[in-house]
Amino acid sequence: MENVRATSQASSHTIDDHLHTYSLLPYTPTNRAFAAIYSVAIFALLFHHARSLSASTNISSFSISFSFIISDLLLAFMWITTLSFRVNPIHRREFPENLQRVVKEADFPALDVFICTADPYKEPPMSVVNTALSVMAYDYPTEKLSVYVSDDGGSQLTLFAFMEAAKFASYWLPFCKTNNLVERNPDAYFALNQAKWSSENQKIKEIDLKSVGFCPRRQKSTTSPHNFKAGALNVLIRVSATMTNAPIILVLDCDMYSNDPKTPLRQLCYFLSPQAWPNLGFIQFPQRFRGINKDDIYGSEYKYVFETNPKGFDGLVGSNFYGTGCFFHRRAFFGGPSSFQPPEVAELGPYNIVKRSIKSKEVMALAHHVSSCTYEKHTNWGSKIGFRYGSLVEDYFTSFMLHCEGWKSIFCNPERPAFLGYAPISIIDVINQRAYGQDLIIFVLEGGTVKKWWNDQRMWMIRGLSSYLFGLVEYFLKSFGISTHGFNVTSKVVEDEQRKRYDQGIFEFGVPSPMFVPLTMAAILNLVSFFVGLVQIIRGSKFMEEMFMQIFIAGYFAVNFWPFYEAIFFRNDKGKLPTKITVTATFLTWVAYKATGFILFN
C-alpha cells in the first residue's frame, strides 16, 4: 500500500484534485441561523425555569420547577448533540476515471472482502452467495481480490452453497465483465431482465437455479466468549493475514450486496490521495435498501442515521462505521497512526508480505491456530487490536476508538448506491434491529417525502417504547449478572402474503412479542385519553383551555398509533396483533390507571 501511495504522490499533487472533491451542503447557512435562534430560545426557557426555582415557596412548587429544569436541560443536551450533524455537513464526489493518471491498474493495492453470516434459516445461503458473487465481479484486478465468509452458524447448507457457487462463478464472472453489466448480483440481475434473456443468459440462469466458496468457520466453546460479530471479524483479520494480508479490507453483511462494480475504484480515490494520508482509517458507504414500499411505513431508509448524520460527521472528524459497506485500511486495526501496536505473531502484522501458497501446510496450520477459540486469551485482540469488544454494537464502538486513536474517516455517498440490502417488512424485525419542523425540511431536501418523514418519526416513537426500552432493561439486568435472551438476527425470509401486505402499507405484527405490550398500552391509553378529552369539551368543561394541549398531544399519538388500532379491531389476517397481546396490554393499562389515581388522590 505504501509503495502504491508513493507512486501516486510522486506523479503530481495537482492530479489529486481530480480524484475527489467536496462542498458544503446548500442548506448549511440555514441550519446555522436556525441553531442561533433556537439557542436563544433555550437560554430564555432555562432562565425562566431558574427564576421559578428561586421563587419557589414550598416543596411542591420547588419539585415541579426542578423537574422542569432537569427535563429541559436533558432535552437541550440532546438537541446540541443533534445540532453537531447540522453545522458543517459536506458532500463528496469521486472521479475514478482519473485513477489511471495516478497509478497503473497493476499497482492497485490488494483487497480482502469479509462477509459475515450467522443463521442459515434467517439469512438464506443463496442470499450470502449472491453477495459474494456480486463483489467477486468487481471491476478490479482478479488476482488482487479475495473473499472470506464467516459462517457463525456452522451450516453445512451454507458450505454446500458456496461449493456450488464456486462452479457457477466460472460462468458468471466472465459473463459480467464481457457484457459490462452494472447489476452483478445474479438474483437481482435475473429479476430485472426476465424478458431479455439471450441463449447465453438462459444457460447461466439454468446453472444459477441449480446452484444453491470457501467458507471459514471459527472455533466456538462454551468456556470462551465468542464476542459476536466483532469476534468473527477479528478471526477474519487474522486468517486473511496468513493467506493474503491485503492492505484494504471491505466489511459486508451477508445481505448487503454490491450494486456498483466500480465501488473499489471510488475508495481508491481517497486511499491514494496525499490529502487524506496518512490518517485515513476507513471509508464508509451508506446503507441503502431495495424492496421498500413507496411510503416506507417502517422508516427502513434510516435517512437520518445513514445519510443525514454521516454527512454532518464527515464535516467534523469523519463518519462512524455502520457495520457494513466499509473499507478499512488494515493498519488502522493495529494502533494509532503514530503508535503502532504490533500483534503477538509477526505474520499477522499489516506490513507482513505473504510469500507461501495459500494451500501450503504452514499457512493452513497457522490459519487454524489463529482461529481457535482460545487464541485471543492474554492478547490485545478486542482491546487494542482489531475490532473492539465490550459492546454489542461493535461498529460504533470500534469507530469511536479509532477516532480517539487519531484515525480519520470519510463518508462516500455516490449517486448510484454502492451496496443494497434487504429491509425488514415486519414490525417485530424492525424493532429487533433498533425539533420536527427542521427535521421535516432536511428529510425532504435529502430526497424523502412528507409521508416518509411521518412514518420515520412514528417509527422513532415505536422504537422508543419497544427496542430502546427493552435494551435499557436488558443492560441493567446484565449489570446485575442476570442472563437475558441476547442478540437476535433479523430474518431475511419473506412470505408472499407478508410481502403483499407490506407493499400495501399494512403493518406486520403476527407474533406475540413482549415488545408489543408497552406499544399497545400506549396506543390504548392515548386513544382513551383523546376521547375522554373530547367528551369533556362537548360537555363544556371549565378546564377546556387547560386541557387543549393535553388533548392535542393525545390525539397526535393516537394518529401515530393508527396501525395498532387497525391491527386490533379491523384485521383478521396472519399479520394482525395477537389477542394475547391486546388482552395483556388492556389489563396492564387498567392497572396503571388505577395505581396512578390512587397515588395522586391519596
From TrEMBL:
InterPro entries (UniProt xref)? Cellulose_synth, Nucleotide-diphossugar_trans
State the membrane topology.
Answer: Multi-pass membrane protein
Source domain of life is Eukaryota
User: So where does UDP-alpha-D-glucose get bound?
Assistant: 122-123, 152
UniProt keyword Phosphoprotein, yes or no: no
Q: Which UniProt keywords apply?
A: Cell wall biogenesis/degradation, Glycosyltransferase, Membrane, Transferase, Transmembrane, Transmembrane helix
Q: Provide one Gene Ontology biological process annotation.
A: cell wall organization
Q: What is this protein called?
A: Cellulose synthase-like protein G3
